[in-house]
Amino acid sequence: MKTIPPFARRVAEWQRAHGRNTLPWQNTHDPYRIWLSEIMLQQTQVATVIPYYERFLARFPTVADLAAADEGTVMALWAGLGYYTRARNLHACARRIMADWNGRFPPTAAQIETLPGIGRSTAAAIAAFAYGERSPILDGNVKRVFARHFGIEGDPTTRAVEQRMWGIAQGELPPDGPDAADEMRRYTQGLMDLGATVCTRGDPNCGQCPVRDTCVALREARQHELPTPRVRKASPERYTQMLVIEKAGEVLVQRRPAPGIWGGLWSLPEFDDGDADTACRALGVGPIEIVCLPAFSHAFTHFKLHVVPWHVKAGPVRLKDDAGEPPRIWLPTSDLAGAALPAPVKKLLQGLYRRGGLF
Q1: Could you tell me where in the chain the CATH 1.10.340.30 domains are found?
Q2: CATH 3.90.79.10 placement within the chain
Q3: CATH match of 237-354 with 3.90.79.10
Q4: What does the H/E/C string look like for the chain?
Q5: What is the pLDDT of residues 264-290, one digit of tens each?
Q6: What angle separates helix 85-100 from helix 31-40, to the nearest 10 degrees?
Q7: Is residue 234 very low, low, confident or very high in pLDDT (cuts 50, 70, 90)?
Q8: Cα–Cα distance between 55 and 25 in angstroms, integer?
Q9: CA distance 71 to 144
Q10: Beta carbons within 8 Å of 131's beta carbon, 6+ residues apart
Q11: At what angle do helices 85-100 and 71-78 cross, to 10 degrees?
Q12: pLDDT (tens digit, 9 = 90+) per residue, 27-63?
């Protein structure tokens, strides 16, 4: 009877031979670069993250550079990556590191977790990759691997199931030893790679799995039952109307409040009730011509937004300057590509002005 190596060793050995080892944020122990990648990779695919990561590092090569930047510059580089709270927390975290840690990243997972926007699993991943610390991770991909391999039933987002998984994650860590730091890095990356490339949600490639010999789901042919699906409620539908107010080659945009959807980004003025003419005049804009553009929809995590845009040729303008009003600027249409706009709004405007506009 053959002896099966421990779970962690099999995952780490597989990672060395078959895992992802050439990503831009790998082969470094720099906690700043590792932290940046971990935040960007939350709920976002690797292929999408890579160009954003490279642009961020080119503009902010150190945590001090990021901390010194204004929020508008940070948001502009993040625009299109989604989940914008991450960008605001990233900026706040950089400033905290400069103020409280003299510009050096905290050296333990417990200390890293105290920083803005960093949860337990992300803190552990940063500590493992940067310092070789033995701290367990438990992101969405790892939960799927554990649910299948150890036969864990129940919704992984519930506290009871999640706590059980944390216990397993802690118990399966590689042992201490002379190569413990490297083994910890390999194991942590291996869990991520396994969930992302082999033990995938829809079509797991069990034949390539390094821990298939001990996988409960494979043995019981339950790969498509585990993890237990979350009971999802119908996604709410929301409706709004946007004003594309144009004057002399510029478009009126206003800063979105934070927190909230697209918080901190520049977007188009919105209205829910009434007509576009009344909404324009309420802003202090006298419209000369108004054209309704094709409606579009955008799906957020917890709801779906339906938008009816109106293209407005502005006449006399006397924008309100009340303290309670959001900041507004006239954005040249030639600057759309680099502006901190939500992705669907930027797509709308770039599509409109690539065609030369309507007026």
Answers
A1: 7-219
A2: 237-354
A3: yes
A4: CCCCCCHHHHHHHHHHHHCCCCCCCCCCCCHHHHHHHHHHCCCCCHHHHHHHHHHHHHHCCCHHHHHHCCHHHHHHHHCCCCCCHHHHHHHHHHHHHHHHCCCCCCCCHHHHCCCCCCCHHHHHHHHHHHHCCCCCCCCHHHHHHHHHHCCCCCCCCCHHHHHHHHHHHHHCCCCCCCCHHHHHHHHHHHHHHHHHHHCCCCCCCHHHCCCHHHCHHHHCCCCCCCCCCCCCCCCCEEEEEEEEEEECCEEEEEECCCCCCCCCCEECCEECCCCHHHHHHHHCEEEEEEEECCCEEEECCCCEEEEEEEEEEEEEECCCCCCCCCCEEEEEHHHHHHCCCCHHHHHHHHHHHHCCCCC
A5: 899 999 999 889 999 999 999 999 999
A6: 160
A7: confident
A8: 13
A9: 36
A10: 29, 31, 107, 108, 181
A11: 140
A12: 999 999 999 999 999 989 999 999 999 999 999 999 9
Whether omega for the bond prior to residue 259 falls within 30 degrees of 0, making it cis, is yes
Report the alpha-carbon distance of residue 170 to residue 7 in Å, rounded: 12
**What's the CA gap between 161 and 229, in Å, rounded?**
13
pLDDT of the residue at 321: 67
**Which of the residues are catalytic?**
38
Q: Give the tokens for residue 254.
A: 């206003």
**Residue found under tokens 């940046």:** 36
Start-to-end C-alpha separation, the chain: 79
Cis peptide preceding 227, ω within 30 of 0? yes
In 3D space, the residue among 255, 330, 269 whose CA is nearest the CA of residue 79 turns out to be: 255
Instruction: Give me the architecture of the 7-219 domain, per CATH.
Output: Orthogonal Bundle (1.10)
- Decide if 253 contacts 268 (C-beta within 8 A): yes
Token pair for residue 296? 């579009």
Q: What is the pTM of this model?
A: 0.82
